[in-house]
Automatic annotation (TrEMBL):
Species whose genome carries this gene: Ralstonia solanacearum IPO1609
Segments of skewed composition (Low complexity): 337-347, 434-444
Database matches in PANTHER family: FAD-DEPENDENT PYRIDINE NUCLEOTIDE-DISULPHIDE OXIDOREDUCTASE, PTHR43755
Protein name from the UniProt record: Sulfide dehydrogenase [flavocytochrome c] (Partial sequencen terminus) transmembrane protein
Annotated InterPro entries: FAD/NAD-bd_sf, FCSD_central, SQRD, TAT_signal
Length: 458
């Protein structure tokens, strides 16, 4: 029997991860009393909002009325947009219209912007003048920039010459055009704000991809990373090794460069302590906070910038019935460098460590995603080890029931189909190791995840 194709496996993996990551809020929204008349409003059509809108419909069997409030005609992916800067992709390849979400899943799409939320009346007020009533509200507002943090950006001409490209679309293209216009021998300055900010590794990934393009197109040019933080905030050892090995002449990293303003037609960065720096191309990423709709509703209670939630359900700690997902959330007790994607795993570790006694144990989203990734690799095959891909008949985990089990684990229960396999045993069972153990890299990764969770719960 032949197994599924790599493309089918990848789609299944992405579907499962999307459902798993949103298991908490979706379970709450899809199990509302009186489902037939229940109304869920989703504000924001990014990764979190669009996925939430889809799976509330799916998990409720189409019985919950779901309205997505999103002003844009299509979604433009911020992840992978750095590849546009290096010339390896175009923006069209990262753009997905919302039409399929409406046609395939019956989501009602209101093409307008949410202006305000009346928490008492359970209403969303639209910029166009209408209102939407809800029983549950899912906010996926993304991020906005802290007003006044960089005074020079208030001037439109200056802001245009120093694009942040932290919201994919026109800004991404603007930065790409400025790179193309830069002379050989020029300097690209990437200014990184103090954490927390959206996607901690992304600025360093951007530096690598721009340097990769410079090697081909502007070999005498270089990238100057000006980081407000004391050190690289994510995957530091990996990035530093790559910079030293692959881009020794094209990337220079400087920590503790906290930008406070920009001047001289968007080419001179000013810092709180360090001397001014002039560059041919300035990519200034300003300090960030939760999206304006969340801040305006009083949900940003962590330092006035980020939304605090219960990580079992992603329900706001200050507004019952409102679930906040995505980059807008932050755990007040968490280290500033733990981004939204790492918070569910940290909270899961805290639960397992005995915190919040009497509450159900959280299912670690990161653990389930790790399991799904190992499954995907097993089904695809290990090319380096010349091991064959795992076929459907080799394990019960390879079929639809296996994927369903992964989602059920995230929702708080269910055993895997078959002989009680757990994620940690999957790789060995799949035949990827003659001794029944995970490959060394996978084993180290899973061991490290367990250690991090244990430390967080201590």
């Amino acid at each position: 029997m032949s197994g599924p194709t790599v493309r089918e496996d990848r789609r299944a993996l992405l579907r499962a991860i999307g459902a798993t990551a949103l298991a908490g809020p979706l379970a709450a929204c899809a199990s509302l009393p009186g489902l037939r008349n229940a109304r869920v409003v989703v504000v924001g059509g990014g990764y979190g909002g669009a996925t939430a809108a889809k799976y509330v419909r799916v998990f409720s069997g189409g019985r919950v009325d779901v309205t997505l409030v999103e002003p844009n005609a299509a979604f433009v992916s911020c992840p992978l947009s750095n590849l546009v800067l290096s010339g390896d992709r175009n923006l069209a390849s990262l753009t997905v219209p919302y039409d399929a979400l409406v046609a395939r899943h019956g989501v009602r799409w209101v093409r307008d912007r949410a202006a305000a939320i009346d928490l008492g009346a359970r209403q969303v007020r639209l910029e166009g003048g209408g209102t939407l009533d809800y029983d549950r509200l899912i906010l996926s507002p993304g991020i906005d920039f802290v007003p006044g943090a960089i005074p020079g950006l208030a001037d439109a001409a200056t802001a245009a010459r120093a694009p942040h490209a932290w919201k994919a679309s026109a800004q991404t293209l603007a930065l790409r055009h400025r790179l193309e216009a830069m002379p050989n021998g020029g300097v690209v300055a990437i200014s990184i704000p103090l954490a927390p900010y959206r996607c901690p590794p992304a600025p360093y990934e951007r530096a690598c991809l721009i340097a990769h393009w410079l090697q081909r197109a502007r070999p005498a040019s270089r990238v100057l990373i000006l980081d407000a933080n004391d050190d690289v905030t994510s995957k530091g050892a990996l990035f530093k090794r790559v910079w030293a090995q692959r881009y020794p002449n094209h990337i220079e990293y400087r920590p503790q460069y906290n930008a406070v303003d920009i001047a001289a037609a968007g080419r001179v960065l000013k810092f709180d302590v360090q001397d001014d720096i002039e560059a041919d191309v300035v990519n200034l990423i300003p300090p960030q906070r939760a999206g304006a709709i969340a801040v305006g509703a009083g949900l940003a209670t962590a330092n006035g910038r980020w939304c605090e939630v219960d990580f079992l359900t992603f329900e706001s700690t200050v507004a019952p019935g409102v679930h906040v997902i995505g980059d807008a959330i932050q755990d007040r007790a968490a280290d500033a460098q733990i981004g939204p994607h790492g918070q569910p795993a940290r909270q899961g570790g805290r639960r397992r460590g005995g915190g919040d006694a009497g509450r159900p144990r959280a299912r670690s989203v990161a653990a389930v995603c790790q399991h799904l990734l190992q499954l995907h690799r097993a089904r695809r095959g290990d090319a380096r080890g010349n091991r064959p891909p795992l076929r459907r008949h080799r394990t019960h985990h390879g079929d639809r029931a296996g994927r369903g089990w992964a989602v059920r684990r995230a929702l708080g229960g269910g055993r895997p189909p078959g002989a009680g396999l757990e994620p940690r045993n999957l790789v060995g069972h799949a035949g990827l190791s003659a001794r029944g153990r995970a490959p060394p890299t996978a084993a180290r990764t899973m061991r490290k995840n367990r250690q991090v969770a244990a430390q967080a719960g201590a």
